Amino acid sequence: MVSDNPLQQVRESAKWVSEHADNVKIDPIAINEFLTNLKKDEYDSKSSTVIFPLNFSTPKHEVNFWFILDLINFGSGFRKELHEASKRGAYETICYGLFGMYLSQSGNLSANFLNKLSLNEISSFFSIPIIEEYEMQPGIYTCRDTPLKPLALKIQQVLKESSEVMLELGFDSFADFVWKITDPVKTAQKGGCLASNFVKELVTKIPAFNDQVKYKDHNVFIFKKAQLLAADLNRRFKDSESARFNFTDIDQITVFTDNVLPAVLRKFGILKLSKELEEKLDNGGELLPGNDEVELRVQAIQASIEIVEMSKTRPDNFIKNSLELDYYLWTKGKDESFRNEFRDENNFVQDDLFKENELLPIFDNNDYQVLLNSFNISLDRDRQIIYNITKGKHYTQLQLLENDRVLGFFLDKVRDYLSENGFDVIKFEQLVKLLCNSLFVCKIPFIGSAISFIIDSAGILLEAQCYRDIAENLPAPKGGIQLTGISLPKLL
């Protein structure tokens, strides 16, 4: 029976994965050697609290900053591209962007401000280029998306989605939400100041915090970012705001597994890989989402739990909990002298196991087929064009621009379908995400222009011209693409 305590859910998941892992094992002898060689001075120096170079006028402003930082603490899969573009890693890029946003708003990073951020503003604040010029033919230049645009889109999506939740719940900022759920009077009625209750509020209210994945038909709970926020607020405010953030169960928080921790633990010999997986990583192969990725990341959680437990049996123990251990391991992995000896973290193509649409399916295959078939109900000019588009007929950029009115009809048909089937605005936006996925994953040439209209209507501020450029530059499919034959899970 799965516990309703999210911290225990993560621990139970880690134990289950460890017991059923095929290609990643934990070496207890290496754990003992790690503890024997660990020096207290180095451990303490690498697990100290981070202080940001900002003048926070109120504790709520700082809490709000921490909330946003941990909410969008992703992007390590773009490490190489980020360094090429700005000489910053993923974490440094997120901090840099938040510093700029904070200063531009005099510290008031409201839900309304975050909800309305355009893609261009995200690009500017975080110094993430989204469009680049390239030479199509000698002397002829055009623009195309950069490899970093998906990261900018993800940041915008998470900020928009999460801030919308705040606005729907009646909060002006993330800090207001935190203040509400950590009200000492109310927490006293729920067992006291508990990290488990705090994390539970986050993962049940905000989809971006609810990270979990399927592994061998078993739900595996990660809750990386939610636990990280609880830990960061505890470390920063356990003294000054003790009634809210001095969580009595802080020792139950696990490490915040990402791409760095498994690489560090492997370097220490604690994680042992199968020969096949080891050769793949050592040869620079990409670690795609799947069982191997789950095992690496979740075994890092279990190994850290075992390190803490084993340390308690030693007379010279100075490791208090997984929280401190995580900060040490992560900081250790960022040391150039240590980091140059391994590059496993670059094998991960993403740093979040969780994919929202996998857990929030909106349309099943039948829904999607009915929606697309609804375009082929007449042979008049407009509907015939829509029919041709859904069959994958390749249009030139000029033709796409001339057919704006027709694509408006496409949008009307989507709206009609949603209305007739009782779908609300949130599910309308899920269709936008689905269509975006069909563009990026399936490379369907027609969909870009249609997406631009739907996105604009849904209030997601992306440039329609950019999507038309994508549609124009993709090759025409041979014989057309039957969208009704696409399996929805592949899109999601």
Automatic annotation (TrEMBL):
One MF annotation (Gene Ontology) recorded for this entry: hydrolase activity
Function of the molecule: Catalyzes the hydrolysis of queuosine 5'-phosphate, releasing the nucleobase queuine (q). Is required for salvage of queuine from exogenous queuosine (Q) that is imported and then converted to queuosine 5'-phosphate intracellularly.
Domain of life, source organism: Eukaryota
Keyword Hydrolase belongs to the record: yes
Catalytic activity: queuosine 5'-phosphate + H2O = queuine + D-ribose 5-phosphate
Family: Belongs to the QNG1 protein family.
Protein name: Queuosine 5'-phosphate N-glycosylase/hydrolase
Pfam families xrefs: Q_salvage
Key words of the record: Hydrolase
Single GO BP term: tRNA modification
EC number, UniProt record: 3.2.2.-
InterPro entries, per the entry: Q_salvage (IPR019438)
